[in-house]
Structures are given as C-alpha cells and as structure tokens.
C-alpha cells in the first residue's frame, strides 16, 4: 500500500510527517536516508508519526533527540531492543520479514496505534544511518490488539524506560491479560517448574526457597506466612492426656485460665476443673468454700466448680473494695452525742459500747438496733464478743456477761477496784486488765473469778490471751508474760522508756507499742528482745499482727508495715494522701490495710505495695472536729464509729457493704 509523506524543515528542528490515505493505519518509521556529515543541529530533532485520515485522528508521537544528536536511532541500541535493521540492498522473504517486523514492533506499540523508537547517543549511527522498514498496524476502533505482549513483562519495562519526553505516557497503555491463574488454571510453565523442584535434593530445595523469598515482594512474603503459619499451629492441650493438660494449665494465672475457658469446649472443660481451682484458691488464701457454694447454688442449680465460684466471688469483692463505686452506707444512729469507746463486729451482729453506760446490738444487714444493753453504772470502755455472748468492762469496776439474743445480763463479775480498761476473750475464759494494776481470769459460763495476776506497778492498759499464756502491758513501762494457771509471772520484758499502750501476741512473739515511739519484738519463751522497730515519731496507738507481718498505726499520722522476723520496715503508708491527724484504729488482711483517723477519714491501702487506693469514708466535718473513733471490718463489710468532741458530727455507725450484689 502506498503512503504519502511530506517533510517540513525548520532552523531549529526537522520533522517528517506520515499520513495514510486508507482506513488501515500505516505507521511510517522512516529516518532520513542520508544526513550531511558533520552537520550539527541547532536544536532538538523530532520525528512526528501520525494519522490524518485513520480512525484515531490527530494522535502523534514525538521522538526528541538532544542537541548534538543526528536525529536517527543507533543500530547498536536498536539491535539490543530486538529491532531489525537492513541494508538497502538486502534481500529476503517478504512474508518472513513482515512477520518478524510485526513481532518486534508489537513490543513498542502504544494505545493510539503509534510506535516509539528507542533513542541513543551513540555517534556510530550518525556515520551509517540505516532506513527502518514500514509496517502496518491493524487497528480496530483505534485500540491495540488484545494480545499485546501478554507475557513479556521485560519488554514492557524496557519500553517504559525508553519513553522519551513528548511521548504518550506508558501508564495509559492498558495491557490485556489472560485469565487469572488458579489451581484449576495454572500458568503453563508451572508444572515444569514444580517437576524440576521435586527432582532436587533437600539442600537444593532449600536454596531455591531462599532465592524465591529474596525475589518476592513483601505482599507475596505475607501470603507465604498466611499459608505456612497454620501448618505449625496445633491444639496441644486437647491432644495431651487430661492429667498433663491440667498440669500445664496450673501454671496459668486465674485471669488467663478464664480466658482459656473461652477458647473452645475442650479447653473450657479443663479450665473449670475443681481441683485446679482449689489450688488457685489456696494460693489466693481462700480457705472456706462452703458459703460460696451455698450462694452459688441459690442462683445456679448445677455448679461445675465450687472452688472456681469461690474464687470468682472473692475477686468480685476485691474489685468492689478497690475500684467500683462505693454504695451509700447504712447509717446507725444511737448513743446520742456520746463517744463510742469500743466496737465489735462478728457475723451480722455489731456491738457498740459508749460512755453513756450502755451497749447497743445492731443488725449489719438491716441497720436496725436490735437490743440496748442497760445495767452498767459507768461508762463502758472495753468489750469482747463471741457468738451470742458479749462481755463488757466499765468504769463502775465490773464486768458483765450478756446474751445478745435476749439482751439479758447473765453475770456481773465483781473483783476489780478500778476501771476495767481492757480484756481479751478466749474460749470460755476472759482475762481483764484494770487501772488497779491487776489482771483477773474469769469463767464466763459460771461468772467465777479463776485467777488474779498481781505484779504491775501501774494501770494495765492492754492484754492478750491465747488460752495458755497471758501477756500484759502497763503504764509502768513493763510487759509481763504470765502463766495464769499458776498465777506466775514468767518474764518481765523491760526496755520501753514510757507507757505501753498496745500489744500483739501470736503464741511465739510478743509485740509491744509504747509512748516512747518504739515497737519491740520479744520471744515469749525466753523473754529476749529480738528487734526494736524504730521509725514512728509518737505514740503507737494500735497494731495488728498476722503471719509475722505487723501493721502499726501512730499518732504521727503514719502507718507502717513490718516483718517481725527480720525487723525490716516493708512499707510506710504516707505520701500526699496520708492522714492529716493521728491514726485512731486499723484493720488489715492479705490484700488491704484500712486505717481511720482524727481527720475524719477512712483510707484503703495496698498492703503489698503500700500504695494509697482511695478514701472509703470522708466526713464533711473532717478537719473541724469530725472523728472516726473505731473501725471493724470483715471480708465484705466495714463498720465505722464516727462522731465529734465539739458537736460538729453526730454520733453514729456507718456500715459499708462490698459484697457481691444479688440479682
């Protein structure tokens, strides 16, 4: 097919324009036959290939050459790209040549039917310029053929690199690909590749895999991980024998056991094993499970693991103490504006003694006053309770034994010649200490005075009794250890330089707190002083001892936690949230320390870390006369005796409940 070409020359560039008279587009890829040797172009040379009659009118491709180029494509570079060049006199089969040219030019065909020539700065082509053959491009609707190099990505990348300024961007070239490969329709070469892979040795396969991974892109490596990782995931817990599986699970924390139970049915069966949770309860110090079982069965007839139910209940209660909103307390008003001097709390019964000469029995559940015990002729300053039996000591120099159910006075114990200031109940015997400097041992069933212990030189302020030995502290700076059966003083523990106000006794160690700011730890068998605990700045007003851990409250507004075996101070409960006045009372267990103060607050501390958790009570009158005199607590409830000495706070009991809410 003939083609007409027109040429226009300008001083700054050379252009050759090719047009085709027929609907079939003809691309003219022809350079000048000759170039004047040594001729330098003043500007870039540009070849314009286009179509003025075809289906895509006006599309052009401009091939620029930099200043100094001869406007032609170099033979060497064309050969690298697979272009076929021929001398003018070269002969060959027209059909074969046409087919070869079609294959080569297809690699550089653009979407508008034009073709882009590679360029080079090689000066060799300037010496021997060669003409390039014309070829026909059959274009339908101005778009390239659907089979535009579907598999040859190398040619595509090479073509993209060779695109020069002024040409149509290759991003606009839409490559039509074959059907997406799948297991049912794999690439043709894959079977050969897999066959070759299977023939290799293990070392060769590993090397091939290494090379393959290095070649892959990140998205392909992630795909490998998604395929490979499940191959190494095994539910070994379900595959193990039950005994071994439970042994493995026993190393998990309770929180992790609860999460494991949500994994699958088999894990849930194992994670709710009763013996497994019994061990967790033992580690958490939960020894009693009967109450938890009873409460659980009231809501759920079948209990899979009673020990788990006990643990979960304990955890919920701890969270109630620590972080959950504090429920409004029950307010128990009584004793008018008098001081509550002593407080006892056991089960659901609260007993308060006051300097108004009475004791009151309250229900911790309903907050109602069940009984008012009237009979003393002086203020009540000490009390003890066991079951339904209450013992009280008064400034009227007597002790009284009461029945809490009926409110009747069972016995009045006469013998002391001054105020009964302290007492301690053990079994059916109670030991009382008086300002008359003596101690008396009583049988509460018969009301008989069994023994009188004489030896102190001043008022007895505190006493402890374990059923075998009696330990007493007095204002004579002495601590004495007694054998009550023989009415014999076994040891006089000397060392304090001021009044002894508080005592603790666990059967092995005696711990005494004094106005001299020191706390002393003694061996009860030998009477030797093991440690002198220094750190407080004032009177140690109250102490609690459990499992060799001592917590002491002081009038210096601080609380300290000690190890009485080593004599080391483990924690000091102070800091920006400490009490602002003297500590009046304290209680503690394995998790918390609860302290009350003259500043009108009750604070909760972490016994292990010494960290302040939060205020449980904060009186509005705190700091202006409101006082928390006494506190008593059990696992779920806290009872506070509050009031004031100047009338700013009404005398009352506050009962805070931290139990699991029943639905």
TrEMBL record:
GO terms for molecular function: ubiquitin binding. Residues 77-101 have a biased composition (Acidic residues). Residues 234-280 form the F-box domain. Residues 15-25 have a biased composition (Polar residues). One of its GO terms (cellular component) is cytoplasm. Pathway: Protein modification; protein ubiquitination. Residues 1-14 have a biased composition (Low complexity). WD repeats lie at residues 346-372, 373-412, 413-452, 453-492, 493-532, 533-572, 576-615. It is found in: Nucleus. It holds the Pfam family WD40. Residues 1-103 are annotated as: Disordered. GO terms for biological process: negative regulation of cell development; negative regulation of multicellular organismal process; proteasome-mediated ubiquitin-dependent protein catabolic process; regulation of multicellular organismal development; regulation of proteolysis; system development; ubiquitin recycling. Transmembrane segments: none annotated. The keyword Disulfide bond does not apply. CDD domains: F-box_FBXW7, WD40. InterPro entries: F-box-like_dom_sf, F-box_dom, WD40/YVTN_repeat-like_dom_sf, WD40_PAC1, WD40_repeat_CS, WD40_repeat_dom_sf, WD40_rpt. Keywords: Nucleus, Phosphoprotein, Repeat, Ubl conjugation pathway, WD repeat. Signal peptide: none annotated. The keyword Acyltransferase does not apply. This is F-box/WD repeat-containing protein 7.
